[in-house]
Amino acid sequence: MSLKIIAGNTLVPRPYLKKWARWLAQLQEITQADAIWLMSLQGDRLQTVLDSGQPSLDQRTAASELANRLAEQAITARAVVEEYCAEVGCWCVSVPLCWPDASVYGALVLMAGKDGRSLLEWLRHMLESDFRTLHFVRAIDQHKNLLETRIAERTDDLRMANERLAQELSLTQRTAQLLRQMVIHVPGGDEHGYFHKLVQQLVQMLRAEHAFVALIDDQDPSRASTISCYSGNDWHANFNFEIARTPCSHVHKRRGVFISCNLDSEFPETQAQFGLQAETYLGVPLLDEAGCTLGIMAAMGGGDMLEAHLANEVIELLAARTGSEILRMHTEDELRHLALHDSLTGLPNRIHFRGRLEQAIAQAERAHTHLAVLFIDLDEFKTINDSLGHDVGDRVLVQASKLLEASMRDMDSVARLGGDEFAALLPGADSLEADAVFQRIAKAMSTPLLSEGIELFLSASVGCSLYPDDGTDSGSLLRSADTAMYRAKALGKNQLQFYAQHSKQTIQRDLVVGNRLRKAINAGELYVVYQPKIDLRDGSLVGAEALCRWHDQELGEVSPGEFIPIAERAGIISDLGALVIKQVIADLQEWQCQQIEVPKVAVNVSAKQLQTTEFTQWLAESVRSAGLKPHHLVIELTESVLMERNDINLPVLAELVACGFRISVDDFGTGYSSLAYLKRMPISEIKIDRSFVEHLADDQGDQAIAAAILTLGHTLGHVVVAEGIENEQQLRVLRALHCDVGQGFLFHRPLSRTAFHELLMHGNGGK
């Protein structure tokens, strides 16, 4: 919505009126105001400068009369005045607008809801910031006129002095021209456009070599960072520096202009801090209304910089204007934040969330990836609000927002849509990852909240939609997630439901398997089988590989090829791996107590489990407490896991080997290992992948690959194991290639712990 400029004002340039009209239009849109006026005091009467023209004709007269009356009251009282207008049916708020010298410019009047007052105050500060700027221009013009009068009054006897004043006048005129250009022609430009132009002009006017504007760090006031730096005839990269080790420290402490003509001796670390070489430094603080330092503006150069008193005058005038520009920039940032965030929780609001969602959809479309949208509604929140009051309800909403944020992944975002409704954006997530996020939400909310001595139990009904299956735009994805949320409420609340779940059999199967698997791990319902490993030279039993199996009462026998990837996506693979290791250690301990020679058993370890904090310590303690030796367990890792996050995995593998464990590389030849990494890894065994063994008898390519792996392994001193041996022809080729150990159906299928125990008792390996 645009506002009309009714009348101009000689004190305010028209570009400023246009800018103010845009600000008032934004304020009217944010607050949904019925009308808004900017009035200027002309003599003893008010004149309307900007007018939204919003009320209907029959309400127009009453609204205008009320606006004029409240504006006069605000100007007289020099304070905010507000009154409810029954004819228009809303609140009318008026604030006075004053020049820096306390004279009145006029008033700002807003007809809107009562909560529009805070935003009106922000707008008032922004307008008065511009008044300060215009006031400086007027002061400069007055100063120029004064100098011209003084020159006209001089006589010929003061010619030398007049020449000096002429030089000063020329500089003042250039400063005035620069300020007028920067004030009038760059109103509300891009964020740093003003500062780039400023430092460039500063170098030219002061005959300097470098100039910069730096802001004090809000988090660490001992440091500052430049937002614009010009050096020589080009832009210089922004830099961060420690204030105490530079001449900026004197500017900061004195809150005034500081000059150093011998930087090398007075501040020897300046060049190292700034990366700029110079002899002379001239700096001035950039202050806010309270006199606190916001930043520093400085020029640096050689001995030919402008004389000190002239340079002081220029830089002080520019500093005053620059301080106002920084305040304007900060005020706009705060107003933008208020417009895009929920005032209670600080989370993004609905508008901000939809913008983020549209961005994520565009990225997912380009990358051909997924994303998930969660629509979250707090269960029974209305009961809390109605029974304990809105203050308690607000505190619950704040705590709930923190719990939701803590439950998300690093790349996820949460927003408050309104009331007790929240939304979450999960880039790159599929159904399993969305379910894992919900599980964290449910766990976080399972702990009761304490409010005024009362325990409050929270839960959430969550609906999920997936891109692109359930929608390809923000509106359809939010609607689908909302529909799924209502289904979750209808089915008993405190649960997650997916949109159109009945048509998504794969998703449903994964969720069912994931949920049943989580329960099975907690209940210890999975079991271990052992596939024997045979010495190919003499056929003796040399160990086994522990394999996980799962028979569910509802699902029946579930293949490891199905439930292991689901465990990885659902984030429970570490729990599954720990369960297998505990069962293997318990079996080995039992066999050792029966005076049976304990075999070496290989257990598979995932990347996530390997990178778990204190994994090595936990494993070593588990083996020690069972009375076993570390060499009884072989840690088996796939080649891809071994290469993933090599910087993290290598120290962990070194710790395991130092404790006495052996490392085996599974599926060797399929992960594109670097031979340099392979040489560095503390491994003792590599396993030829079954894909190279399957056609070994009749495929010369597979024979060549197997021979190369065997040669490489033996050269590095590793034991080489072939897996998937199923016939005599494969066995003959492997023996001819001098393979050390084999496993497969030709020798034994995976055996139950009882059957493997019998095999150990008889000591019978295979062929």
Automatic annotation (TrEMBL):
InterPro entries: Biofilm_reg_signaling, EAL_dom, EAL_sf, GAF, GAF-like_dom_sf, GGDEF_dom, Nucleotide_cyclase, Rev_trsase/Diguanyl_cyclase. It holds the Pfam family GGDEF. Residues 369-501 form the GGDEF domain. Transmembrane segments: none annotated. It comes from the Bacteria. Residues 510-764 form the EAL domain. NCBIfam families: GGDEF. This is Bifunctional diguanylate cyclase/phosphodiesterase. It comes from Ectopseudomonas khazarica.
